[in-house]
Amino acid sequence: MTDNRRPARIHRFRPSMITPTDDAIPDYMNLMGMMFSMCSLMLKIKWCAWIAVFAALVGFANSRTSDDAKQVLSSFMLSISAVVVTYMQNPAPMTIPFLQ
Questions:
Q1: What pLDDT is attached to residue 88?
Q2: How many angstroms separate the CA atoms of 60 and 42, rounded?
Q3: What is the Cα 59 distance to its own chain's centre?
Q4: Which residues of the chain have pLDDT under 70?
Q5: Do residues 75 and 56 make contact, with C-beta atoms less than 8 angstroms apart?
Q6: Whole-angstrom Cα distance, residue 72 to residue 16?
Q7: Tell me, what is one Gene Ontology molecular-function annotation carried by this entry (predicted)?
Q8: Are 32 and 56 in contact (CB under 8 A)?
Q9: CA 13 to chain centre
Q10: What's the CA gap between 79 and 50, in Å, rounded?
Q11: Alpha carbon distance 82, 54 (integer Å)
Q12: Residue 5 phi/psi, 5° resolution?
C-alpha cells in the first residue's frame, strides 16, 4: 500500500481578510419607507402608503443581522399603519393618478 497524499502540497487554510462593503441600500429604503408613510398619513395618498410598504420590505430583505432591528421594524409597522389608516379614511379602491 502506497500513500497517495503529498505533504509538500498541503497548505493551511487562511481566511482572506475581505471587509464587507458599507451597503447603504437598507438604510435608504427604511428612510424612504418612513418618508412615504408619513406623506401618506398626512396627505391621505394610498399609493404613497403602498410604496412605503414596498420600501420597508426591501429594506428588511437587504438588512444585515447585525443591524438594529428596531429601525427596520418601526419602518415596516409605520408603513403598514399608513395603509390601514388611508383605507379606513377612504375605503374606495385606489386610483393611480398617472393612468387616468
A1: 95
A2: 24
A3: 1
A4: 18-22, 66-67, 100
A5: yes
A6: 31
A7: protein folding chaperone
A8: no
A9: 35
A10: 8
A11: 12
A12: -75, 145
Q: Are 79 and 37 in contact (CB under 8 A)?
A: yes
Query: Is 34 in contact with 80 (CB distance < 8 Å)?
Result: no
Cell 447603504: give the residue.
24
Please state, in angstroms and rounded to a whole number, the distance separating the CA atoms of residues 20 and 53: 27
Cell, residue 38: 408619513
Taking the C-alpha atoms of residue 59 and residue 54, their distance in angstroms, rounded to an integer, is 9
The pLDDT value recorded for residue 54 is 96
3-state secondary structure of 93: coil
Taking only Cα atoms into account, the Rg of the chain, rounded to an integer number of angstroms, comes to 24
- Of 81, 85, 71, the closest CA to residue 30 belongs to 71
Which grid cell sits at 89?
379614511
User: Three cell numbers at 10?
Assistant: 498541503
Q: How far is CA 3 from CA 6, 38, 69, in A?
A: 8, 71, 54
Please say whether the beta carbons of 25 and 72 come within 8 A. Answer: no
